[in-house]
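Q: What changes when CU-O-CU linkage is included in the input?
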Amino acid sequence: MSNRFTRRRFIASAGAAASVALGSSIFNLESVWAAPVTRRNLGGMAAGDPVLVSYRKAIKAMKALPTSNPLSWNYQAAIHRTTLSGSFPAWNTCQHGTHFFCSWHRMYLYWWERIIRKMSGDPGWALPYWDYHDPSQRTLPVPFRDPKSELYVADPNRGTGWNTGSASFPASHVDPSAGMAEFDYFLGQGDIESNPHNNVHGDIGGWMGGVPTAAQDPVFYVHHSNIDRYWNLWLAQGGGRHNPLSDTTWKGQTYTFFNESGTAVTMTPCDVLRCAEQLNYTYEGEPTEVKEYCLRLIFPWWIFVIAQVLIPWPGPPVELGEREVAVPIDIAQIRERIPALLQNKNERLVIELNNVVSERAPGVVWEVYLGAPPNTALSAESPHFLGTMTLFAAGVREHAHGGFQPAHFTFNANRAIEAALRTRQEKLPLVFVPTGPLIDGKPSHPKVQSPVRIGAINVAIGRNEERKSDAPIVPEREPNKPK
Ligand code: C2O
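A: The predicted holo structure follows.
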């Protein structure tokens, strides 16, 4: 609350001075730029909170506009992806499983948020974030469950139990720690895209469960606000973590959106490096912004590479369906090398899943375990837990737009292999367990809507490498702040 009132007071006083020059602008940009708005934590936010009241008002106004209007709810959702036919500028442009996952979604939220400000008539509005990592926020936020609210989406466009509050995320599905621990930007981004991002989509299901429908649900945006926050939190950890400033392709990529006047605007990742400074928002509770600039390169930085494939899986593709599947990984030929590998600080053993494909959204989160002795109970707290696997965009053929891309997953396996060595097994079972949200606190077994096929499985050595580069620098556009 306090943040919001501080800002409102500020806008009121700044606006008084500025209004003379700006005349009857309903949308006083100058005052909005004066101090960053705060994207607040949704936890405990009451339905009557001004942030949610304005959000509802904007949705209502946006839904009243025709789909062809860039400010309409349909048009904005279609920028992400849509099942609507017809094609308008910027439709179907969302980025998943690519180098632009974080940057594209940051741009998307930024312009969308400006449109919400205009459509709600609330110039200081900021999109809240849903921190589902917090155990008290694992169910759907209450204001989104009220059938009378614009924030509501009826079943089955949300999966069973979310609208009643009985469904919740298992802790293992909303755990950003693997991504946070990485040093390489693209690897960290990929891990966060997988967990919690894809898992949240998969668990909620309904519209959220499929890329072409996800952005129709108002909860999509508070989910992505949290994902966007993780980018900042990742960077703020330091330790050699940097944006991919040496990657000229990344820096030069242009995407199109619409501003609150309905005019097309373009941006590159260089325009979205610093939320507070360039985009005028901060997240409640986040550390001081790390300021990185496309004009400045930082040496050295870390990248992650697969240095060597130790054991390529010899078998046919693995099919995942309704049941648990165990794939035996024969480690005999590398057993001797393992203790030394486990000691190496910059290297680690990884399990790579390549060419992961399904026809439609599978509607299931697979938990992946390595080396647990047969007949032991599998739980995400065990050292044998590698992580989760959810197909959301990459790998889902039905959702391919233009080029189809199979999904790819990498799991750190040191801990599991170390534990497995003590069990003296010849072959380590790699186990895939289909899971869903908790229902009334208990594990559920959702129906697999579409089986998943894993084309190749490798045990490999992954390595963090220090890189320097003299690649040409793409200058930041002037001015830095979007108009
Ligand atoms: Cu573009 Cu969470 O999806």
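Observations recorded in class: Residues 1-32 have pLDDT under 50 and may be disordered.
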